[in-house]
Design a protein that fits this description.
Number of helices: 1
Number of strands: 7
Helix content: under 10%
Strand content: 35-45%
Amino acid sequence: MTMGGKFEVTATKIVKGTPAQAKSLHWDKRMAGEPAGSTPYFVYFTYTLKDGKPHAANVDLGAYAAALDMNGVKVAERPTVHTGYVDGGCPVPPIYLRWDMGESRTLCTVFAGDASNPPARLAWGTDEDYMKGASWEWTAK
């Protein structure tokens, strides 16, 4: 349940970015507290509205995703500015006015990580105990 609606969530594609894309995202000029990482991971989720009515049409449904290694340790984080709108990164999504029951949309979010320790799982949840929630194994392409 998120923002007034229940969604089925599927991680559909993860694309490993390049250091040049990280530079285009201005991660080299990050502020204190921002995640460190020279590699962007562009993660695509498909959301299907199963029940309810979301409070906002353009909610940030990727806000509760976590990128973990196989042991459940967080190895990549979403930067504060997490659009990922660079050449070859996340596409700019259309503006939606509402969700209809059963409607599916694929949206992208970006994580900052380190190429030497890439994420191996995605987990979904609002607390730090990600191993108890749903997760998906994946390999970056």
